[in-house]
Amino acid sequence: MRTAIVIGTGLIGTSAALALSARGVRVHLADHDAAQARTAAALGAGTVEEPEGPVDLAIVAVPPAHVAAALADAMRRGVARAYLDVASVKAGPRRELESLGLDLTPYIGTHPMAGKERSGPLAATADLFEGRPWVLTPTRDGDTEVLNLALELVALCRAVPVVMDADAHDRAVALVSHTPQLVSSMVAARLRGADETAVRLCGQGIRDVTRIAASDPAMWIDILSANPGPVADVLSEIAADLDETVQALRGLQSADEAKRGAGAGGIEDVLRRGNAGRERVPGKHGAAPAAYEIVAVHIGDQPGELARIFADAGQAGVNIEDVRIEHATGQQAGFIQLTVEPTAAPALTAALRERGWSIRQ
């Protein structure tokens, strides 16, 4: 791939353009908002100049509702040898394209499983896709050269290709992406009218659950409008669990010992099913989840503290698998949770204590 055009310079489009430009591909940028395209160009994502002829690959990075129209326009103008989109829904846009009677042999639907709560070109980074799954949904009538160009794009963005059927993809993202967004927003909405005293008690758990609730509503309306059925199916199952959990909690309030026992059993059931589901979430590098130990260290909120603790861990010869910071309410301090291999935890604890760090037991 030597040339490409990115149509739609939001978070995903600009990030892909930055990754391609960094690897020597000449990228042309187009957007219905010319100012947004110029912003992406100023960031080093490419040029707003029109290509002189057909480019190797057109990447359509617009909301799902506009994918078919943008692709159809690009195909009719012959802007590229191959075309793909990066929308988070796959079956609907393809059906729309088929209804337009277009030759779809030069097209493949794709979806990089990466994103942020923030949108727009200023949120974009060249490494957004590194190590992330990038779904490809080829069909029997697709051109092999188009699939190869899509795979090259994935490789240049350092993502991991995953081949799926379009409908299976839409059901999958309903479960692992679209429904979590709504559930996160619903939980966060409870905070809107909550007493200030309650809000001040927010800890890491509520921050984890509500992080993605900061996402752009307009963007999610576009996404959910393109995949309402599968999302509604998952939410219906969650609603059934919620009903059962509410009844179990009411049972725990009862004076009847049998009802309290049944209530406790119902709560235990949902928690254990949650344990089992959580264990299936892929771990580091997409591998099966591993059992790790957490070493929690008191850390001050001042420049250089993070660098110092990582350097000390490195001096101890310990690899940090993951990290999380738990902030202390109203204090210029908190705890950093260092996730390590179980065999490394005692050595790391001893080494950090020797260097003056306070370890939380």
From TrEMBL:
<dbReference type="InterPro" id="IPR036291">
    <property type="entry name" value="NAD(P)-bd_dom_sf"/>
</dbReference>
<comment type="similarity">
    <text>Belongs to the prephenate/arogenate dehydrogenase family.</text>
</comment>
<comment type="pathway">
    <text>Amino-acid biosynthesis; L-tyrosine biosynthesis; (4-hydroxyphenyl)pyruvate from prephenate (NAD(+) route): step 1/1.</text>
</comment>
<dbReference type="InterPro" id="IPR045865">
    <property type="entry name" value="ACT-like_dom_sf"/>
</dbReference>
<keyword id="KW-0560">Oxidoreductase</keyword>
<dbReference type="InterPro" id="IPR046826">
    <property type="entry name" value="PDH_N"/>
</dbReference>
<protein>
    <recommendedName>
        <fullName>Prephenate dehydrogenase</fullName>
        <ecNumber>1.3.1.12</ecNumber>
    </recommendedName>
</protein>
<dbReference type="InterPro" id="IPR003099">
    <property type="entry name" value="Prephen_DH"/>
</dbReference>
<dbReference type="GO" id="GO:0008977">
    <property type="term" value="F:prephenate dehydrogenase (NAD+) activity"/>
</dbReference>
<dbReference type="Pfam" id="PF02153">
    <property type="entry name" value="PDH_N"/>
</dbReference>
<keyword id="KW-0827">Tyrosine biosynthesis</keyword>
<feature type="domain" description="ACT">
    <location>
        <begin position="294"/>
        <end position="361"/>
    </location>
</feature>
<dbReference type="Pfam" id="PF20463">
    <property type="entry name" value="PDH_C"/>
</dbReference>
<keyword id="KW-0028">Amino-acid biosynthesis</keyword>
<feature type="domain" description="Prephenate/arogenate dehydrogenase">
    <location>
        <begin position="1"/>
        <end position="289"/>
    </location>
</feature>
<keyword id="KW-0520">NAD</keyword>
<keyword id="KW-0057">Aromatic amino acid biosynthesis</keyword>
<dbReference type="InterPro" id="IPR050812">
    <property type="entry name" value="Preph/Arog_dehydrog"/>
</dbReference>
<dbReference type="InterPro" id="IPR002912">
    <property type="entry name" value="ACT_dom"/>
</dbReference>
<dbReference type="InterPro" id="IPR046825">
    <property type="entry name" value="PDH_C"/>
</dbReference>
<dbReference type="InterPro" id="IPR008927">
    <property type="entry name" value="6-PGluconate_DH-like_C_sf"/>
</dbReference>
